[in-house]
Amino acid sequence: MPVGVSVCPPSATTLTRIATACRATADGQHGIAFATLVSVTTPEWGIYVVDEVRAWIYSLEPTAKARVVLAIDALAENGPALGRPLVDTITHSSLANLKELRPGTMRILFVFDPWRSSILLVAGDKAGQWEAWYREALPLAEQRYEVYLKERAKEEGDQR
């Protein structure tokens, strides 16, 4: 696992898995910490979560949190087969496979990595700031994915 990544038990609920993932530590070089969720129904589709996304999920009011958790569960169960209206592809990014999970007006930018996992990179509610949200979120997602990819490739022993 990359620096700062923890593996969560596959039998837990999504919120429990996210809470267990809180034990991940920050990468001293980049100041980014990653946590992982392991899908309950299809273990080959693990979900990694950066600490900032985990904290955002916990900051949501209960109804919004439930909507986000259901969307994450659907992603864990379906992987890349999950499509519109819950998932859409981002077209204005340097990452060809950047996608967004779309529970209501909330957005979670994520990527499926080369190891059959997804990583949740940036999250927020874009209500009232439809274009501005992407101007800030896209570069952040690209940066976080670059750090994650290097760390994970190093751990996996390849140079992707």
Question: Which SSEs are present, and which pair or pack?
Answer:
Layout: H1 14-21, E1 34-37, E2 46-50, H2 51-59, H3 62-78, E3 87-89, E4 98-101, E5 106-112, E6 117-125, H4 130-156
Parallel strand pairs: 2-6
Antiparallel strand pairs: 1-2, 3-4, 4-5, 5-6
Per CATH, the superfamily is RelE-like
CATH architecture: 2-Layer Sandwich
Main sheet record: 6 strands, mixed
Overall average residue pLDDT: 75
**Helix percentage range:** 25-40%
Strand content: 15-25%
Reading the helices and strands in chain order gives HEEHHEEEEH
CATH hierarchy class name: Alpha Beta
Query: In terms of structural class, how would the helical and strand content be classed?
Result: alpha+beta
Strands of the widest sheet, in order across it, are 1-2-6-5-4-3
Count of individual domains: 1
Radius of gyration in whole Å, from Cα?
Answer: 14 Å
- Low confidence ranges: 1-17, 19-34, 36-42
How far apart are the first and last residues' alpha carbons, in Å? 15 Å
Number of helices: 4
Q: Specify the overall morphology.
A: globular
